[in-house]
Amino acid sequence: MLKEHAKVMQAFLVSGEIVGRKKLQKMIYIAKKINFPFYEKYDFHFFGPYSEELTLKVEELCNLGFLNEVREKKGGYYQYRYSLTESGEQFLGHYELDMPLLEPCMTDMNAQPARFLELVSTVLFFEDLERDEVKEKVFTLKSKQRYTEDEVDAAYQYIEDLRKRTVQ
Hints:
Layout: H1 2-15, E1 18-19, H2 21-33, E2 43-45, E3 48-50, H3 52-63, E4 67-74, E5 77-84, H4 86-92, H5 102-110, H6 114-125, H7 131-141, H8 149-165
Helix pairs in contact: 1-4, 2-6, 6-8
């Protein structure tokens, strides 16, 4: 059971601090879709792919003292900052996780805006469809985000670049 928790902790270890629950959800989903061994189940939600399993794991890790969660008031909403604690790092030392290319992938994604990761994850969620159908889904389901054709093309390019860098 805790091996799956350890994989999530490894993502925090190599990412450093992750700011935002939405960003965290998208980073793990994208990593899963480009063949890292994350097994959380995702459904399509208001902000794109979302995993209740991941939310529960993060909550458990916080309760165990392995993850630090800081809640900050930002205008009309709260933003959450997550980082691995010293106890979490010690616990993680008991696991041998073979994900050597996870660090550059997570570091790169962590540097991206959450809005862009939302687009990338949405494109990946519908990747079995033709590109034009994916664009139509994005423009319909994400109409409030007002993504452009160029942004969708950039998402496809980003996915391709991540996949090239993570081939083992």
